[in-house]
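Can't attach files on this board, so I'm pasting raw text. These are the components:
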Amino acid sequence: MRLLEGEGLTRHFGGLAAVAGIDFHVDQGEILGLIGPNGAGKTTLFNLISAALKPTSGTISYQGSQITGLPPYKICRLGIARTFQTVKIFAHLPAVRNVIVGSLFGTGSRTSGAEALRIADEELEFVELSSLRNVPAGDLTLAAQKRLEVARALATHPTLLLLDEIMAGLTHTEVDEAMDLIARIRARGITVIMIEHVMHAIMNICDRIVVLDFGLKIAEGTPAEVAVDEKVIEVYLGEEI
Amino acid sequence: MNAFRDIFLTGLLLGGIFALVSVGLSLQYGVARVLNVAHGEFIMVGAFITFWMLGSINLNPLVSLVITGPAVFIMGLILHKTLFRRLMDTSPSLDVFEGKSMLASFGLLYVVQNLARIIWGSDVEGYNFLNSTVTAAQIPLNRLVALGFVIVLGVAFYLFLARTRLGKAIRASAQSPTTAELMGVNIHNVLAICFGLGLGLAGIAGSLLSTLFAIQTSIGLGYTVIAMVVVVLGGLGSITGAMIGGVILGLVSSTVTFFQPSLTMIAYYVIFIVLLLSRPKGIMGK
Amino acid sequence: MKTIRMTRNRGITLGLLLIAFLILAFLPQVTSGYVITLLIDILKFAILTVAWVVFSGPSGYMSLATAAFYGLGFYIAAVFSGTFPFPVLVIMAGAVAFVVALGVGALTLRLRGVYFAIFTFALVLLVQNVVLEIERVVTETRGRFVDTVSTEGVYYAIFIVFVLTMLTAVLIRRSRYGLALQSIGEYEEAAAHSGINVVRTKVLTFAVSAIFMGMAGAVIATRRTYIDPYIAFNLNTSFLPVLMAMFGGMTNLAGPVIGAALFTYIGEILLTRFPDLYMLIFGVVLILAILFMPNGVLGLAQRVWRKIRGGRRAPA
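---
Top answer:
Structure tokens for the assembled complex are below.
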């Protein structure tokens, strides 16, 4: 079943098209990888889905209905949560308060304070940050901050989770832990779209991969198909996929 | 037709003065990131130093520029090295620094204005200087002289930024402080110099203004507001923008004043607010 | 153990608040004149400062529009002076300030950082000049006269507004709106993507804080028989609350109140004798507070206290 579908999505910055007429979709329960060189339009696509940006043209539908033009908070309450390429946490608030913001405002139904706190603690447990729940988020390590963002997003009870390079800047062990985390997220029935440069992670986890270059979709398919695609190899010339 | 010509000429002359008042503020914000609300106070200080030297040693106001400019420049350097430098070091982000430095400049406004009031009192002062008129359009000579100085200063400043090593460092820092630093620019010195230059220009503007208008220790805020309007008009941080913005505001001012003088201030604020809402990056901004 | 101590601390705080409330409530019965006049001034600034902190503290949007809403209160009181009873005037002022702030907020809260600050700054001057022009054209005067109210009446009015301001401030801080504002102040984008209706939260709190500014204006207007746009829309009314909040500290609500009280009291002493010096000191303190007291006097006191206690505990 199609969960999210974009048609002819285009976004211009000045004269440049960061995303140029992209069609894509993600099915319920799937993990979709989004790859491509820097400046290919991956984060712009995330920004369009999460409504941080309005598309110049094109439409996005979610669970069968149009969501183009809705404000970000409504997108979130509908069940599309995201993390950010450069972490955007509430640095002076304790970790648990960061997550409470998600459970209090993002779930789409009115949550009581006690309920929000319970959810927040559950999600902290899920990302294995319970021991650091009272530490100001700004004092956490980068890996912990990325997990905290995931917890905040999960606390909004998403159907679809957008993960923007949650493995960038992490050590090998931390990357393995992040892969494990994504697997456990999928086990909860949450659909995931992930942007990632860590290729072995993408190839291992994703069911399907969309490759972008200069704002265009140049390839799409299973990891095995994409890995042998000539256009993809050209783009990643010299890099081992 | 004559009325139209008069409005245009008055507006142009006034615009030159507005540009002079504003370029300094634009430099302070554009490079040093200090939205200096006390800018006008240093115009007032320049004006009073000139007035005071005319009275005590009979120094020609135009000569006194050579003293007020550097004197206020040094005040700026010291202020930046002590106050704003420290704020910069303790602020976690540029946004925080901008907020804090603007607040601090409010404090500065009160300090400078009230020190001036203690020294010079709060009476209206003034003197006559070259106020005979030239040509049929009844243009006072002092305004022409002021405009001439503005143009000379503008060109000199442009050449300074375009040609000298320091000027290039300043432009690089305005583009990207981190890159400039990597290229070996001592960013703290450049910022301090920019802040100082901005204030120095305010001092010079004050000297020139004292040849045209009556002065009082409370005139500063009025000029700050004009400078802010002009700078927002031209785009915060753009030197050329400030020049063009000054002329536009001068023309607006002379037009509105011609029809209904009491609406002039309202016109400034309306332009300011409408611009902020519609084009916060200025009319020339992208 | 920890919870017992917390409950006890809470009890002490509530007790102290109750005592302060009772003293303030019954003071006019035992004294009059100077003390009451000074308290009116302190309460006025406490209202303005706390109301400012409610919005600008957590959100980080530095509003300099306080004087606009306060002055609006002045004019409501002046224009309808004699037409409506005093309490109605005060409520009207709050309502009008709320509505105007809703409009201003909806227009401007997309501006960020210094842009928002200079906008609100220009707003005060615009309103001042517009009112000046209206008066010139319509009434052909510069100022207006306001019916006065007894000192005791003004005192109780400002006291009630103060209590309302504090209650509202506490409620907002404890409610979901408090957390929402805080996260907006920390990272607006992340707040929006976590489900917070950023625009509504900002505009609504901005407007709620304006209610009390307008009310305070209407009450204080009756202290002056004559008002004009320069008195009503004075930029100092915008700056002083910011200074008092910075001076007192904004981590809790006691800070702004202490800042307002201390500064008004010092001002009272200096202003009558050395007006220039007062404003000079005002400026110096503002700069020093920004430089050296990020959490205000309250924060400073806590830091010193911790150092003293820590010093005792430290091994010799």
